[in-house]
TrEMBL record:
<keyword id="KW-0547">Nucleotide-binding</keyword>
<dbReference type="GO" id="GO:0016787">
    <property type="term" value="F:hydrolase activity"/>
</dbReference>
<protein>
    <submittedName>
        <fullName>GTP-binding protein</fullName>
    </submittedName>
</protein>
<dbReference type="InterPro" id="IPR027417">
    <property type="entry name" value="P-loop_NTPase"/>
</dbReference>
<dbReference type="InterPro" id="IPR036627">
    <property type="entry name" value="CobW-likC_sf"/>
</dbReference>
<comment type="function">
    <text>Zinc chaperone that directly transfers zinc cofactor to target proteins, thereby activating them. Zinc is transferred from the CXCC motif in the GTPase domain to the zinc binding site in target proteins in a process requiring GTP hydrolysis.</text>
</comment>
<keyword id="KW-0378">Hydrolase</keyword>
<comment type="similarity">
    <text>Belongs to the SIMIBI class G3E GTPase family. ZNG1 subfamily.</text>
</comment>
<keyword id="KW-0143">Chaperone</keyword>
<dbReference type="Pfam" id="PF07683">
    <property type="entry name" value="CobW_C"/>
</dbReference>
<dbReference type="InterPro" id="IPR051316">
    <property type="entry name" value="Zinc-reg_GTPase_activator"/>
</dbReference>
<dbReference type="GO" id="GO:0000166">
    <property type="term" value="F:nucleotide binding"/>
</dbReference>
<dbReference type="InterPro" id="IPR003495">
    <property type="entry name" value="CobW/HypB/UreG_nucleotide-bd"/>
</dbReference>
<dbReference type="GO" id="GO:0005737">
    <property type="term" value="C:cytoplasm"/>
</dbReference>
<dbReference type="InterPro" id="IPR011629">
    <property type="entry name" value="CobW-like_C"/>
</dbReference>
<feature type="domain" description="CobW C-terminal">
    <location>
        <begin position="217"/>
        <end position="308"/>
    </location>
</feature>
<dbReference type="Pfam" id="PF02492">
    <property type="entry name" value="cobW"/>
</dbReference>
């Protein structure tokens, strides 16, 4: 199974490094690696550093930092050869770069087999966007925002509730399909990135909605012991997508022998080879994550039941 990759983008001074530091120091035991490009530097507190050599910095919690030097594939290969390999990789783009090219590189099938793009997080400075509304017309910033599956309004404590609401309204008008988060000092919500999926629903073909570990979000689990119709599933997901922050699951489709790993974030949905399933697992296991109040269990169940072959 490929190692999930989180791409962090955003304008200069938005707080990308602070966000990555927060991820690394709150990894809940996971081994995370961070890759930063030539324009950036990741300022990790000295007490976290365990040592460095040849551009690679090993941290006490198993994290690794290195500098991205043009060859993304070679850099990722270096990280994946570590023993043990990382369980997640964070890549930070420069504040003056368009992340679209990095996204295209990460979607290359050769890279995808080993390090799959899980999500793109665009960090934005809430204070700067409030003080300078024309920033949202800047071509580079717009490209960064459009590349993001999630938009993080960092420094949310520096604006009023009214200013934050107005900023959310403007972003929704520009990018209605994005999930907008808020943070203070880069403290992103836990559970959306590099997290194990919520527990499987206890009853077959019954959706279970529960509050997610991240405040403001909820998850819905659904399982079935029969294969799904791929065309009907794709149609259902396209209808559900505007409500979701992300979705993932192990699926089996009629006419296909092997199970598939399904992942969706923002407007991007992917299928890949599924890892081995635990003994006794349901044939189909799905998890949806959305902002509180957007998941309607009865509606979701009806749509998914229609997908059963």
């Amino acid at each position: 199974m490929p190692v999930p990759v989180l791409l962090v983008t955003g304008f200069l001074g938005a707080g990308k490094t602070t966000v990555i530091n927060h991820l690394l120091t709150n990894a809940a035991g996971k081994r995370l690696a961070a890759v930063v490009n030539d324009f950036g530097a990741i300022n990790i507190d000295a007490e976290l550093l365990a040592g460095s050599a040849d551009g690679v910095v090993a941290l006490q919690n198993g994290c690794i930092c290195c500098t991205l030097q043009g060859d993304l594939l070679r850099t990722l290969s270096l990280l994946l050869r570590q023993e043990p390999p990382p369980e997640g990789i964070v890549i930070e783009t420069s504040g003056v770069s368009d992340p679209a090219e990095v996204v295209r590189s990460l979607l290359d099938p050769v890279i995808w087999r080993e390090a799959a793009l899980d999500a793109v997080l665009c960090v934005a400075d809430a204070r700067a966007l409030t003080d300078r509304p024309p920033l949202l017309e800047d071509a580079l910033l717009l490209s960064q925002l459009r590349s993001g599956d999630f938009i993080l309004l960092n420094k949310a404590d520096t604006v009023t509730a009214e200013e934050l609401a107005a900023l959310r309204t403007r972003l929704f008008a520009l990018l209605p399909a994005r999930t907008v988060l808020e943070a203070v000092q880069g403290a992103i919500p836990a559970g959306l990135f590099f997290a194990d999926e919520p527990p499987e629903a206890p009853d077959r073909a019954v959706p279970v909605v529960s509050r997610f570990s991240t405040p403001g979000f909820e998850s819905l689990s659904w399982t079935a012991d029969r294969r799904l119709s791929l065309p009907r599933f794709q149609m259902a997901v396209s209808r559900l997508a505007p409500r979701l922050a992300r979705a993932k699951g192990i699926l089996r489709f009629e006419g296909q022998e092997k199970p598939m790993l399904f992942q969706m974030v923002g407007e991007r949905a992917t299928f890949g080879a599924a890892p081995p399933s635990p003994s006794g697992s349901a044939m189909v296991r799905l998890v949806f994550i959305a902002e509180n109040g957007r998941l309607q269990a009865d509606m979701v169940r009806a749509m998914l039941e229609e997908c059963v072959a």
